[in-house]
Amino acid sequence: MSDFMKWLYANYIGPQIKSASQEDYEMNLSLLENCLEPDLVTSFKKTQEFTAIHASLLGLRTGWGLPRE
Hints:
Elements: H1 3-19, H2 26-35, H3 38-64
Helix pairs in contact: 1-3
């Protein structure tokens, strides 16, 4: 992933996710984070970052009708 995408996640995508209403998913996310071992929490957060970045890119590509590359 490019440095720009990591910056975009840290400065736009991540804050948008945190500010979004999670009331339907709050219990599930809390249970998952509390049940994981500390080293797996880091992997879980990196996986969330990866998924959010690529979901945003998919939204841009499909919204603008852009090709994959």
